[in-house]
Amino acid sequence: LAEGLHNITARLPPARPPARLASMAHIIGAAASSAAQQAAASAGRKIGGGHDVQPMGHALPQLSVRNSGPGSEIRWEDFNYPPVLRLIHFDVTELPLKLRKTVRLLNLSFLLTSFVCLLNVADTAAFVFAGVAPMQWLLQSALHV
After folding, report:
1. Which residues, 6 or more positions from 79, have their beta carbon under 8 angstroms from its beta carbon?
2. CB-based contacts of 118: which residues, under 8 Å, 6+ apart?
3. Is 16 helix (H, G, I), strand (E, B) or coil?
């Protein structure tokens, strides 16, 4: 049965996408590129136009999270996490007590996953430089980080 299927597929001409599909893909790509350029220009005007850029916590006032302690406001402008990149604000002490355990467990999960991915890159690099694995593996391992 497998040999018969192989003979049938060997006689078929190679598949080519129809011309309409290629032209539609070109049109969709051009529309997406235009939309991205307009969004970037709009964002540049809003930031460069003298308007104040609001931190994420103030952009969504209906999602206010406050600690029950006195005077404990969340400092949204203090971007301190992850340690080297400093992309977001993260401080467990500013959260309500009932959320702290969950947030600590999520942070631990993030740290363990990051550590394992970095360890995987190091191990894969050792295998690639030893000649045991192809260079493609190192690129794939780095993409997981």
Report:
1. 86, 87, 88, 89
2. 145
3. coil
pLDDT, one tens digit for every residue, the chain (145 residues):
666 656 665 665 665 655 565 566 667 767 777 766 676 666 655 555 555 555 555 554 554 555 555 456 778 888 888 888 888 888 888 888 899 999 999 999 999 999 999 999 999 999 999 999 999 999 999 998 8
Give the pTM.
Answer: 0.49
E strands present in the chain: none
Residue 119 half-sphere exposure, CB side, CA atoms within 13 Å?
Answer: 6
144/17 Cα distance (integer angstroms)? 32
- CA atoms of 85 and 145, how far apart (whole Å): 14
Q: Which two tokens stand for residue 134?
A: 């192809």
- Nearest residue to 55 via CA among 73, 75, 85, 82: 75
